[in-house]
Amino acid sequence: MRKALVLALLSLAAAGLFAQPVSVEFWHAMGGKNGEITTAIAEKFNASQSDYRVTAVFKGSYPDTMNAGIAAFRAGSPPAILQVFEVGTATMMAAKGAIKPVYQLMAEQGEKFDPKVYIPTITSYYSTAKGEMLSLPYNSSTAVFYYNKDAFRKAGLNPDKPPATWPELFEAARKLKSAGYEYGLTTNWISWIQLENFCAWHNIPYGTRSNGFEGFDTQFVINSELPIRHFTNIYNLSKEKVFVYGGRENKANSLFTSGQVPIHFESIGGYGNMKATCKFDFGVARLPYYPDVPGAPQNSCIGGASLWVMGKKSREEYKAVAKFFTFLSSPEIQALWHQQTGYLPITRAAYELTKKQGFYNENPGPEVAILQLLNKPPTPNSMGIRFGFMPQIREIIDEEWEAILADKKTPKQGLDDMVRRGNEKLREFERINK
Amino acid sequence: MAKQYEFSARRLPYLLVLPQMIVVFLFFFWPAAQAMWQSLFIQDAFGLSLTFVGLENYLKLFKDPLYLDSLVRSFVYAGFVALIAMSVALFLAVQANRRIRGALFYKTMLVWPYAVATLVAGVLWMFMFNPNIGVLSYVLFKRFGVEWNYLLNDSQAFLLVTLAASWKQISYNFVFFVAGLQNVPASLVEASAIDGAGPFKRFWRIVFPLLSPTTFYLLVMNLVYAFFETFPIIHQVTQGGPGQATTMLVYKVYRDGVFNLDLGSSSAQSVVLMALVISLTILQFRFVERRVTY
After folding, report:
1. What is the CB neighbour count within 10 angstroms for residue A5?
2. Domains and CATH numbers, chain A
3. Which chain A residue lies closest to B256 (C-alpha atoms)?
């Protein structure tokens, strides 16, 4: 009797639930203004239809968010959508039972999905070697350099014609130093800008097996002629006190924004911050290249994060995710995201729309970055990188780079040690993810 | 003889300590046991493939010269942090314990840094000593000609994190030393003064031995603090660099576990760290405590 009553109540409750929209969670690492915009986009999606509901939940930093997602998966209740930073891509991809590749999801749900509408350099980073999209790019940026136009004028350089090649840039940096600046040049993110993007831009490999896209049995090859030459050049400039090291990650920003150093390599994602903090006229220019390298410049590669769909979810929930991804990829939403956050749009249509709206007249910086990504169709050397334990490997690169600048190693020794220590990590990752 | 209390009901005492025991079990013993278990495996981040490897994770650690360096470095670091934080705190406590005008003000001012979150302390020190924008690095260079660049100079980086970590702990030590000093009977100090002992002798012969329980307790706490709790400072100021000049054991555990999701190695490292601190504490209780007068 009691059992029957409970059953009756349960079925009533279930019937009530069916009228409710299907609800899925989206865990992300976007703090501050970017977090507000993320929430606003989810709200817009919820308001646009009544069958599905996406709840955006802020989970802290990138590693925090990834760890929260993994812990939730281990406990059996992962969110439907998890934002993961680009260097976590290999880890996510290797977890075959834990994730649902986006191309599969879209096909299963019969959602209209044309990979060609996306900007290839952005989607290739999160796709298999065959071009199947594993995760949906969310916030993407690329490396550019910022230069202080006032300083260029002071040093007799043309502020509307930033240096296009590395030799020209080194010359400009020396001139800026002689014009009275403490240093001429600095950079953030040694690994991401001066190696990952550097190799893509010059169309030379970072690792074997298409930079790791074709398998975990890959090896680093960054101790080749060109990176050695590049690191030697920067090392020499540092001896001349033309180049200054500002620290790991994005710690060098203050050198540029304070006006001390007029040339600075940084992500286009930092454009808004630069606009808010620089009290001088500055420009954004595409990465320089070595003119004797055949095919250079190729295209730069991206950084940022993408959205992974987690496994073990119901059909209804996957339907909700598929609808949300379609919504997210629409030109209007992409244009809004791009213009409000400074991250790059993931579709060409969003770029065209933004251009038509006249956004780049006021903000020329982001367009430089997009054109740099679109410069040429990506090659196996410039699609991006796919290595396990990448956060640790970037740290090894920082350590060896500091040893070079501190005169403990020659540039060649430093790069050799990056390759040796990095390869050890790759072997460990390969073994763990067999 | 201390008085013994007896509960009439047999279960009551167990019931009373139960909440505490549950907390200790859930938040200390359980995770520790998990770490020991996980350190015997290699596994991917999601736990989809689990391979038993025995003690391999440990063997790999002790074959890695960088890990051994970090081990030695962590001991030196913890020793310096404890020494600096305790001696400065003791000095300040003795000064503040004298009858001076505004003693309460000094005490309050000396205690408040403890309220600063460790991460925020790291940010403060980073800004003061940043070679490019730091106020103090500017003074060091312009006034004293010191080329301050902890981003590339190993010793300077080590010095900076040691000082920052010590600074953060001074307040905590100060509170305990002040409390300890107030328990030193004035009559003993006065008697020795009458016997002709000078201020130095009075302090080292009378006050300091009577403070030994406090000092001993603080020694244990400071070492534990330096080994386990200072990683936000390192994370904020140097991120373990330059090279690995400030990579301490606990920071490596965090990087390898949280950033890289290399759970096997990270677990093995935390077990090593735990074993180190347990044996250090046992040693202290065996050898240092004998010289402590309660």
Report:
1. 9
2. 18-140+303-373 (3.40.190.10), 141-301+378-432 (3.40.190.10)
3. A392
